[in-house]
């Protein structure tokens, strides 16, 4: 009998020990899940299967929480005091589309861009940026195939045949997509206006309205010989997520300072980059010399190559940077379409504290490119 009691006691003690260790293991798993970063990079080729659901819910603006009180019999319940509070938005989920847009293949490009935007939306993005001239294609550096506005020039595609006015067939398509998905879409495209052609960005709002058109003002001669320069004034739109400023590729030499003066919070940056040492530039020089010095968060969407064996320096590395220059999400080079997504911190209580740039008075001016960084510049 004594032996049976001892055996029973040992068994109970063993069960208690096992229960204790299983509880510790469960707590450790929970902590590990809670520490998972919010930034993700998603590869979505055009033939990809259905994307997974978002890892974290999309942030909402102005969401209210109400405290509910139970009714007791025979007593009237007065309305609760101070039970409704407006939650300030502290982050917004943003996405940079990285893709190759083939010149003269507008329908193909539009279909690819739409698929990638839908991937971003399913993963909670509220702001999506595409590369430079993503709708009609920009150029092809290996053989320097570019658009031409000269009707007598042979061998180059005529920009007049593919440029579109705004509103137009494809701008209306993406305006409707923005309305359907309830997000902001910054589309890079070639615009025709009054017989002139522009390397442009158009920003659509979640209601489907065209909020702004930005025309590239600082042109890159090898790729922009067909277009007219924009006025060079900053294009800024006020939104629930702060002020969104638009910028296209080569404008990084002059536009960031203008956007600072316009009290921009987030730059939507459409890029078709060309230049050596792209990894060094996007991972170190750009966040240090452009992002951090100007204290501007940037969503950078760059192009990728058309295929293996058909590439050039400057491809890839689409990125999301916060205003301190920290890289929140970044993809590498490559030839497959990609969507880069991250929660981008915003600080409504701190925004617009810059006083026309005077806080930096007396300090050395931030240079877009200094020292060896000039070697990263596109060839003139």
Q: Describe it for me?
A:
The protein has six helices and 15 strands. It is an alpha/beta fold and 380 residues long. The protein has a single domain (91-376), classed as 4-Layer Sandwich (Nitrilase/N-carbamoyl-D-aminoacid amidohydrolase), CATH 3.60.110.10. It has a seven-stranded mixed beta sheet with strand order 1-15-4-5-6-7-8. A hairpin with a 5-residue loop joins strand 7 and strand 8. The longest helix is centred in the first third of the chain and has 33 residues, at 2-34.
SSE inventory with pairings:
Elements: H1 2-34, E1 40-43, E2 64-66, E3 84-86, E4 91-98, H2 106-122, E5 127-129, H3 169-181, E6 184-193, E7 196-204, E8 210-215, H4 221-224, E9 235-239, E10 242-248, H5 255-261, E11 266-270, H6 278-294, E12 297-301, E13 319-321, E14 327-330, E15 338-345
Parallel strand pairs: 4-5, 5-6, 10-11, 11-12
Antiparallel strand pairs: 1-15, 2-3, 4-15, 6-7, 7-8, 9-10, 12-13, 13-14
């Amino acid at each position: 009998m004594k032996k049976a009691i001892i055996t029973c006691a040992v068994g109970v003690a063993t069960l208690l020990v096992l229960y204790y260790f299983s509880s510790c293991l469960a707590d450790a798993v929970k902590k590990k899940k809670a520490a998972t970063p919010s930034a993700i990079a998603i590869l979505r080729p055009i033939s990809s299967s259905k994307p997974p659901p978002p890892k974290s819910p999309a942030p909402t603006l102005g969401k209210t929480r109400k405290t509910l009180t139970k009714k007791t019999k025979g007593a009237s319940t007065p309305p609760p005091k101070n039970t409704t509070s407006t939650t300030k938005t502290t982050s917004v989920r943003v996405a940079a589309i990285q893709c190759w847009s083939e010149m003269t293949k507008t329908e193909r490009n539009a279909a690819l861009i739409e698929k990638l935007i839908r991937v971003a939306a399913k993963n909670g993005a509220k702001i999506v940026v595409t590369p430079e001239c993503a709708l009609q294609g920009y150029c092809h550096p290996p053989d320097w195939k570019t658009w031409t506005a000269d009707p007598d020039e042979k061998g180059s595609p005529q920009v007049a045949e593919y440029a579109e006015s705004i509103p137009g067939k494809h701008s209306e398509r993406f305006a409707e997509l923005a309305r359907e998905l309830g997000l902001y879409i910054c589309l890079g495209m070639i615009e025709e206006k009054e017989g002139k052609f522009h390397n442009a960005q158009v920003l659509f709002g979640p209601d489907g309205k065209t909020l702004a058109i930005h025309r590239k003002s600082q042109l890159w001669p090898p790729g922009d010989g067909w277009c007219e320069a924009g006025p060079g004034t900053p294009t800024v739109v006020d939104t629930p997520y702060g002020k969104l400023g638009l910028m296209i590729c080569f404008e990084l030499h002059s536009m960031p300072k203008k956007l600072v003066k316009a009290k921009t919070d987030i730059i939507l940056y459409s890029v078709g980059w060309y230049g050596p040492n792209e990894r060094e530039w996007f991972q170190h020089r750009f966040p240090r010399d452009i992002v951090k010095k100007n204290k501007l968060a940037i969503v950078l969407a760059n192009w990728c190559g058309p295929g293996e064996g058909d590439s050039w320096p400057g491809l890839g590395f689409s990125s999301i940077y916060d205003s301190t220059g920290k890289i929140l999400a970044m993809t590498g080079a490559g030839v497959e379409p990609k969507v880069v997504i991250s929660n981008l911190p915003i600080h409504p209580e701190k925004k617009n504290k810059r006083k026309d740039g005077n806080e930096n008075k007396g300090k050395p001016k931030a240079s877009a490119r200094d020292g060896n960084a000039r070697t990263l510049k596109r060839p003139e």
